[in-house]
Structures are given as C-alpha cells and as structure tokens.
Design goal:
The protein is an alpha/beta fold and 532 residues long. It folds into 2 domains: 382 residues, Rossmann fold (3-Layer(aba) Sandwich), CATH 3.40.50.1820; 136 residues, no CATH class. Helix content is 34%, strand content 16%. The chain is built from 14 helices and 14 strands. Strands 1, 2, 3, 4, 7, 8, 9, 10, 13 and 14 form a 10-stranded mixed β-sheet that branches. Strands 5-6 form a two-stranded antiparallel sheet. Helix 5 links the parallel strand 9 and strand 10. Helix 5 packs parallel to helix 12.
Length: 532
C-alpha cells in the first residue's frame, strides 16, 4: 500500500496494479469469471464469534457483491459489481444498531488492510517496525474489532479485491469499448464517489438499514472519498450521516510532501511535513540532541514550521544567504539532516529525499507509510527512496491471510483472483467542487469544500480525524492544517475531534495504537449514534 510520488497523483496510496484486463482469447471472461455472472448479486453467509476486549460477540457474516447500474437505475446497464464483507451483531435490533462503511484508499485499493489489520473479527499479526517473516502467518482473534460498537461493511473499490467493472456486450469489440468507458466513468474522484454512494444506498435498502445510525470510515485516499461521498449522500441522496471517521487524511493534494518539487511556488508541503520529519528523526535517534519526550518536541517544531520556516520559504530567492544558513541550522536540529545538504536543497526536502537521506550513512531507506521501518537502500547514490520498507514488510502477510480467510471462513471467492489494486491506467483527479457552476473543475484536487458543505447542510454531522506521527505519506500536521482551514462557521468547529498516535499511515500496525484507535472510534460512535 504505497503511493506514486507523482505530481498528478500526490498522496494516492498506490502499488503497481495487478492487471485484470480482459483475456482476448476468452470471449466472455475478465480473467477470473464470465462477465455475465457479474451482473447478478452474489452472497455467502457464515457465522462466528469474536472476543472484543474480553466481551464475546456473536455475529452473522455476509460476503457478497452488489451490482451498480447506470444512473443508479436498476433498469440501466450494469456497470460495476462491488464486493463487500459485512458483519452483523446478533441478538440486537438492527434498526437501532449503528452501521459503518469502511474502505481503504489507493485510489483503487482493496480494503484488505482495514479488514485484516484494524476492525475485522480476525487480525493478522505482523512485526511492529521490521520485516514480518514469510508464511505461515498468524491469524488471531481481533481484540479490537469495531463490532462491539457498530455493524461493519468492508467495501472493495471498483476493480479491486473481488470487485469488477462490467462489460457484457456479446460483441467483443463493443465489449472492449464498453470497458474503456467504464474505466473513464468510474476511475476518478467524482466517478468513484458516485459509485460508492450508489453502493451505500443500495446496501441500506437490501438489508433494511435506512433508519440505522450511519458512519463512513476511510483511510488515506479513502478520506478524500469520504469527503466527496458525504456530500453526495447528504445533498443528492438525502442521507444524513451521524459521523465521518478519517484516518491518515488528505483532502487537499497541494499539501502533499510527495513530489512538491513539481509544483514550484507552493511551499506549504515542506512546512507541514517538518513535524513528521522531526518525529522520524527522534524515533531513529538521528537528532543532534535527543528530546526527552516526543509530543512536547513536536509542538515546538509545529510552531517553528508555521512561523520562521514558512516565512523563510515564502521569501523565495529574496532570502539572503545568512538567513538561509540559519534556517538550515535549525532544520538540522529538528531533522538530523546535514546543514550543507539542506542549503543545497534550498531548504526544501521532499518526502522521498528525506526517506533516502535520513539514514544514508547506514545505506538504509526509511519507511514512507510508516517511518519507524527501515530497509536496505536499493541505490545508495539515488536522490530519492526507491521503495517503501514498511509496505514490503507487511503486504505479503495481509494478502496471504485474507486469501485464506475469505475462502475458509467467509466461504467466498473460489476460482476468483483477489486483486490488491485495480488496473488503473489513468485516475481522473479533476473534481467539480460544490458550489461551482457549469463544467468548472479544480486544477488540483481539493475536497475540503465537499466535507464543509456536508457539515453545513447537516450541522449535526460529527467528524473524527485520526493520524500517525510517523506517517510520511499523509503527514499528520497537514491533516491538522486542512481541518483548521475548512470553510465552515466557527460554531461547527466543535463538531471535529482529533486523535494522534505513535504509529504510521496504517496506525493499526502498532498494536497499542490499534487499541487506542478502537477505543476512540467506539467512543465517537457511542456519543453520536442518537440511540437513546
């Protein structure tokens, strides 16, 4: 689960996708199963129990697909078969039971990470900050499943996991064109948001959950999706949400530390990433003087980042050499990077540069999704990191554990390939923000207006922002900055709460942080579900 450091796709947690293009030698196959079979919903039921922090919960599980149609009309052509795994607590009134829709990011990622690492009923055990040994992997009862607070629906994005785009014309040439159109329609900020909205409303109807308290939980690009989705559900589908829970947030892509050099003149990412650089240097003991505690140190760095450092960056070429060297010296104290390196970098260090340089003397690359991780540098002479040690350390465990679990326990997926990522040739990052007219599109994706509109049109909507101090993919201070710049009335700021953890992008990869994340989210749901 890593991101491409490209200006056009900043902060999109993307690995090299696994291809799922149509097999040209099989006239009606998408590589796994006949396209015709995708046009009908599928489901498999099972049951089980989980012990959450000492309390047993019996549940029914449903693994299956819902079929989306053009314009949301069941009479229209089928467009997407979306896979989900839902867990329903037994022995309670479902009408009063909260339900949470959960998804990872990508864009185009399956939701194996949150399912097997955070809130599902079983959890794969991985090493805390080092490479997890190869199979067999341990799958254990998840003491921190969110099923104690809410029913859960884990959703795979179109084209990922067991979800598939549908092209079912009998004529192969027409089918190929149809698939191109499907990708164009769905693989983008707005198309993805509408697909998820149609899934949510269809799920509420299928399982009679329209009157349940409703929540969205998105991670990484999933937070981008949540902002868009919350606005669509609220203002197009008349679905009031009780809460939106964000993990490792990116709403404005101009804040990303991935590839800011391709967006010259916008220096905000460098300032907002500085506290994460400092936290990482603290963790690896690379600072000239090691602070006694992390959080007081970070408050100091945050103040400097938005003050003297931001001021120096805004001066650009007007900054004199003496001031530049003084700033570089301060950055050295906060990051451990050499003063001369910082001067040569013009005080501007991207995420990839920092990951490569921090442990350069040991030929080590620092993790991106979780900077507590390290791994051998692929090319010690490169300018940027060339892979993510954290992603390499745990991905195999998640993929293997889920593939085994979904078939053995959930009874779904025989003869199908579980695709970690959709085959996305191009993701359309253009976005029509609320309040724009005609065909006006943003030049850089920013869905802060979407979340703000949802909050203003539903003033009871609550938001919980969660982030990790060691996340170089979506730095926590950038998320904090975005939230404090939402275009909302001051009175609505009380509807937003914050929680930070000594972990990375996948906060739950650190067990103590997983427990804290569970407790914070469960408390948030309990306080906002309106069931008396």
């Amino acid at each position: 689960m890593r991101k491409l450091p490209l200006a056009a796709a900043l902060a999109a947690t993307l690995l090299v996708p696994v291809s799922f293009a149509a097999d040209k030698d099989k006239p009606r196959a998408d590589g796994d199963q006949a396209q015709a079979a995708l046009t009908q919903p599928q489901s498999a039921q099972s049951s089980g129990s989980v012990s959450v922090e000492g309390r047993r919960i019996d549940y029914k599980a449903v693994a299956g697909t819902l079929v989306l149609h053009e314009h949301g009309d069941q009479a229209g052509e089928p467009t997407v078969s979306m896979f989900y795994a839902a867990y329903f607590k037994q022995g309670v009134d479902p009408a009063k039971r909260p339900i949470t829709f959960i998804y990872n990011g990508g864009p185009g990622s399956a939701t194996v990470w949150l399912h097997m690492g955070a809130f599902g009923t079983r959890r794969v055990v991985t090493s805390d900050d080092s490479h997890t040994p190869a199979a067999p992997y341990r799958l254990v009862n998840n003491d921190y499943s969110l099923l104690d607070a809410s029913d859960l629906v884990f959703i795979d994005a179109p084209g990922a996991g067991f979800s598939r785009l549908i092209a079912d014309d009998k004529d192969k040439s027409k089918r190929d064109e149809q698939m191109k159109e499907r990708k164009k329609e769905v693989y983008g900020v707005d198309g993805d948001g509408h697909a998820f909205a149609q899934f949510v409303t269809q799920f509420l109807s299928r399982y009679d959950r329209w009157n349940s308290p409703k929540y969205l939980f998105g991670e990484s690009y999933g937070t981008t999706r949540s902002a868009v989705l919350a606005n669509i559900l609220q203002n197009e589908d008349s679905v009031d949400l009780n809460g939106v829970i964000l993990l490792s947030q990116i709403l404005s892509f101009d804040t990303s530390i991935d590839g800011p050099e391709f967006n010259p003149g916008v220096d905000l990412p460098y300032a907002l990433a500085l506290p994460t650089f400092a936290a990482t240097a603290y963790y690896h003991h690379r600072l000239p003087q090691q602070p006694a505690q992390l959080e007081p140190f970070l408050r100091e760095v945050e103040q400097y980042a938005l003050g003297d450092y931001a001021s120096a960056l805004m001066q650009g070429a007007r900054l004199d050499d003496a001031r530049k060297r003084a700033v570089a010296q301060k950055l050295h104290e906060y990051t451990g990077l050499p003063v001369d390196y910082l001067v040569k970098a013009n005080l501007r260090v991207s995420g990839g540069m920092f990951e490569h340089q921090l442990q350069f003397d040991g030929d080590l690359t620092t993790g991106r999704l979780d900077s507590r991780f390290s791994g051998p540098a692929l090319d010690p002479l490169a300018k940027d990191s060339e892979y993510d040690p954290q992603s390499s350390a745990i991905s195999s465990a998640y993929v293997a554990a889920f593939n085994d679990y979904v078939r053995r326990q959930l009874k779904f997926g025989d003869a199908m390939q579980y695709r970690l990522f959709a085959d996305i040739d191009h993701w359309d990052f253009s976005h029509k923000a609320p309040g724009t007219h005609g065909e006006a599109l943003q030049s850089s994706t920013n869905v802060m207006p979407d979340l703000a509109t949802a909050m203003k049109t539903n003033p009871d909507l609550k938001v919980l922002l969660n982030g990790g101090y060691y996340d170089l993919a979506t730095p926590y201070f950038a998320a904090d900055y975005e939230m404090h710049h939402l275009p909302i009335p001051a009175a609505l700021e009380k509807n937003i709460s914050y929680a930070w953890y000594p972990s990375g992008h996948m906060v739950y990869a650190h067990e103590q942080s997983l427990k804290a994340l569970h407790d914070n989210v469960a408390r948030f749901i309990e306080q906002t579900d309106n069931v008396k």
